[in-house]
Amino acid sequence: MPDGASGSPFPVLLREDRGAVATLALNRPAARNGLSLSLLDALHSELEGIAADSTVRCVVIRAEGPVFCAGHDLKEITAHFGDPDGGHAFFSDSMARCARVMQAIPALPQPVIATVQGLATAAGCQLVAACDLVIAAEEARFCTPGVEIGLFCSTPAVPLSRAVPRKAAMEMLLTGEPIGAEEARRIGLVNRIVPRDVLDEAAAELAAGIAGRSAFAVQLGKRTFHRQAGLPLEEAYALAAAAMVENLLAEDAAEGIGALLEKRAPEWRHR
Asked: What would be an example GO MF term here (predicted)?
């Protein structure tokens, strides 16, 4: 999809499939990969297609250029301050489209890995926090700086507050100060830190490892993980126990247990 916000003829989102891994690359480097409506729509469209594609077993989200994502496209937003309604309709539509993408990521059957090479700010940090796993370059930075311009990052706070301890999230939201990759890992926003020149290779290796597992077990596990996280303890255990029973009755569980006992590699049927 071309970039309607800037008039660029280049697609705002690139996709590359290698084996069972689909890689989506934000491709608005000149606009610091800002989440324009065209980019949000392209992301949602690709995620919808991937959700229905059983040949894809893991997804990587990366970005072209030095910045991972600078959040919403502020030029696109400010262009609507002069609308008859002050921009209300456009802003509501923008937030709804963004929320649709951010909810599609945890709802996706396949695990999603974010690879962050540089700055991830505001809704860009939101995108990172929404992903299942995060690999960051040593120089990556993360922040929710909306408070500095009178615009509290309320929507980025949703996945951020679910990814890191609440007080850590509030400090990021109230100060707007960037944190480095090491601090992001310490609070749980980042899983792994690697040198920039091996970032894509590290992500590909992690994704391939996940894609090599039973797709049935991984997808059931991801779905159960996200569902139980918001439940009271007793309900969470009931949900998880039912998922374990469902998993034990699957062909791949019998194959995996048999392979372990027979000291051989399992042959997954993904069911």
From this structure: enoyl-CoA hydratase activity
Element holding 7 (H helix, E strand): none
The tokens for 208 are 């391939």
Which residues does the chain have with pLDDT short of 50?
Answer: none
Residues 127 and 189 sit within 8 Å (Cβ to Cβ)? no
Give the per-residue pLDDT at 5: 56
Say yes or no: domain 2-211 is CATH 3.90.226.10: yes
Residue 6: the pLDDT is 54
pLDDT number for residue 10: 85
Where are the CATH 3.90.226.10 domain residues in the chain?
A: 2-211
Residue with tokens 């310490």: 186
Cα–Cα distance for residue pair 210/59, rounded to 1 Å: 10
Enumerate the CATH 1.10.12 domain ranges in the chain, comma separated. 215-261
Q: How many C-beta neighbours within 10 Å does residue 156 have? A: 31
> Distance of CA 127 to CAs 32, 111, 154, 157, Å?
14, 14, 13, 11
User: DSSP characters for 65-122?
Assistant: SS-SB-SB-HHHHHTTTTSTTTTHHHHHHHHHHHHHHHHHHHHSSS-EEEEE-SEEET
